[in-house]
Amino acid sequence: MISVKVTDKVVIVSGHAMFADAGKDIVCSGVSSITFGTLNWLEQFGKSRTTVEANKITINYVESDKQAIDQMIVQLQTIEESYPKFIKIDKGNQNV
Predict the structure, then answer these.
(1) Is residue 94 scored above 70 in pLDDT?
(2) Contact status, residue 14 vs residue 90, Cβ threshold 8 Å
(3) Using CA atoms, how far apart are residues 21 and 40, in angstroms rounded to an integer?
(4) Which of 13, 34, 43, 94 has the maximal Cβ count within 10 Å?
(5) Alpha-carbon span 21 to 64, nearest angstrom
């Protein structure tokens, strides 16, 4: 399962969806596309720090980048609504 943890100023995306075999996993592909699209935007226009490791992406975001983070979370929530067994978003007490 993919885990997305959202706290005040930090987003962590980790794990694997295990929806299908490698190369055919549409849940993993969707999450990767959304997450890396956001990372690319942050790299080009943002001020947030990001770390990419095997099976884990951490975004330490600043307030000026919050709209990009909020957009990423809303997109990931769309996948979670369709595939709740394969992605879980924990927003704690965050309102996104």
Answers:
(1) no
(2) no
(3) 26
(4) 13
(5) 38
pLDDT at 65: 97
Domains (range + CATH), the chain: 2-89 (3.30.70.1490)
What three-state secondary structure class fits 30? Answer: helix
C-alpha 22/C-alpha 43 separation (Å) is 28
Beta bridge partners of 59: 11, 50
**Mean pLDDT, the chain, as a whole number?**
94
Cα angle, residue 26 at apex, residues 82 and 84 outer, rounded to 5°: 25
Q: Which residue in 9, 11, 92, 3 sits closest to 55, CA to CA?
A: 3
Residue 61, class by beta-carbon neighbours within 10 Å (0-12 exposed, 13-18 middle, 19+ buried)? buried
Q: Is 60 helix (H, G, I), strand (E, B) or coil?
A: strand
**pLDDT tens digits, 33-80:** 999 999 999 999 999 999 999 999 999 999 999 999 999 999 999 999
